[in-house]
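Subject: Interface between my chains keeps coming out wrong

I've been trying for a while to get a sensible model of this assembly. When I model each chain on its own everything looks fine, but I need the whole thing in one frame so I can look at the contacts. Pasting all components below, labels as-is. Any help appreciated, I'm running out of ideas.
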Amino acid sequence: MFAYILRRLWQMLPTMAGVVVLVFLLFNWVGGDPSYLLAGKMADAHAIAGIRAQLGLDQPWYVQLGIFVKQILTFDFGNAWSTGEPVAHILTSRLGPSLTVLVPLTVLETVIGIALALAVAFVRGSLTDRIVMIACTVGMSISILVYIIVFQYGLAYQLGLFPVQGWGEGFWENLLRYATLPILIGLAVSLAPTLRLFRSFVLDEAGQDYVRTARAKGLPERRIVWVHVLRNAAIPIITYVMANLPALLIGAFLLERFFGIPGIGREVILAVERSDFPVIKAITVYVAAATMVFNLLADLMYQAVDPRVKLA
Amino acid sequence: MTGRTMQAGAAALKAQTSPGLWTLAWRRLRADRVAMASLAVVLLFLLSVVLSATGLVAADWEDEVAVNYAPPTFIGPDPALSALAQPQRPAPPNAFDPLAADIAVLKAQLAREGHAVQKPKRATLPFGADKWGHDVIKKTIKGGQTSIVVGLVAAFVAVALGTLFGALSGFYGGLVDDAFNWFYSVFTSIPSILMILAVAAVLQTRGVASIVLILGLTGWTGPYRLIRAEYIKHKAREYVMAADAIGASNWRKMFSHILPNVSHVALVQMSILVVGFIKAEVILSFLGFGVPVGTVSWGSMLNEAQNELILGKWWQLTAAASAMALLVTAFSLFADALRDALDPKLK
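Reply #2:
Try treating it as a single job with all components included. I did that and got this:
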């Protein structure tokens, strides 16, 4: 097991190197020279040269790449261009609010998604099944923007059930007061695609021989679905949930922006608006690393769920 | 073999030839009522894109034909706004205005060119007006043009890139395959929305072309994986070996022998990507990273509508949101049906 993890981590290195080079090329070569932007409107040649020296832009490209790699390894990206706040502090302080929204959202989405998928697959082909599937397709077609605008206006602004936006200090206050509506909206948006996907995972299993055997030996349908089918459908479900976690960190940016939640996603939007390259670079590299680590975690969880899977 | 003998041969063989993949797929689609209905809706939207692109429809969407925020006709005019509906009366002459003579000359010139005839603004429109008095229906058609064209072109770019990379990777294998797989794993380890935002941050120019570029360059990974698998499967087939035996070049084997046999995968991928890209364009334009100022898209309409809703003007939001929902529903249902029709084993 330990050797397997070590080898997987070793195999991540080329991919990680690719991500670093891609981000480096994107921001240092396609992005052009940021010193004109930083120097402001009334810049003289001396000030620009000073900024270039400070950012290391007057060095050859391999030195610049070296600086970037060192920044990643030491977790020190300097200060954000727009606010002067250290990038490392931005990353650590924005993670908490993001997770306050994302962890409950993911847990609820997965649990409700699995329960509904099993229920719908149980009556597959019936009118209920078809209506639910069509409702899912229609629900997925409405832009997430419309959900947020309408829910925020209706439930928070008009009915006053939730605060329109904001963020407090205490964890429970945030979770129970400010994060509730964003979580509900996130659930409304993500449940339809999740349900469709989980249903197809469950249906793939429902035609298998072991299901017929279980039925032949007289097990109640409820036990077949909830114990036998669920355990086998768990593998693709784990892949999906785990692979999506890091992407969700960014994917919730619209919720964070609309509700004024100081999370990672909102920080990305602000950084793009202000052309704050160090922040975007740092977030991109670390989210890519997190994606790879979570893929590894998913593979490790397979073995826990299904002893037939041999990690070698 | 000349064309004439080929025709004769085809006529003779007609009794025995079995229908091809596309004929069969079309027959399956025809039998599917949901698919045909959604195809009709999609074609209707495409027709509106063509008409508005050629200027036959909604070319005058920027005319301020109604009062600001004119409500839809079925609600009736808003009494608070009716004062605005009258043409503006000219200000009384000011004896001390030093520019009076110049302005009189300019006004006379405008009158000669026909600008001075200010039409009375309408108090209501079939589906209301926006902040400037633009007709919301025309604006939705024009916005749809931008969003749909971006979705189609970007999906084409993404699928073309994915097909090219997948073909090279699957056909050659070995080092080429390793290189493309490495590239693929690099791209997939960055979440696509983050990739899109990062590229948007770097490309300082806002424009339709740059959104197409952003979406196209980041969306090739899905088609790549599927097309690569198809090429690995097909390159060992007998017809490719036969082509090899008669001395066809690698390029010819890849693109004139194998490609037609895997093109249905590319088509299905493209129809799936169009839906995703239309949604992505709307979000990008909403955030202001998409279409430039002065171009209307469904995303920029939603951006305006967000503030209008607080004032109680819900019609622009409803128009843009329902047009988009209708198109995306129809397109996804059609994409599902297309996949089932082209690959019946998948079901």
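Reply #3:
Confirming on my end. Chain A is about 80% helix and 0% strand.
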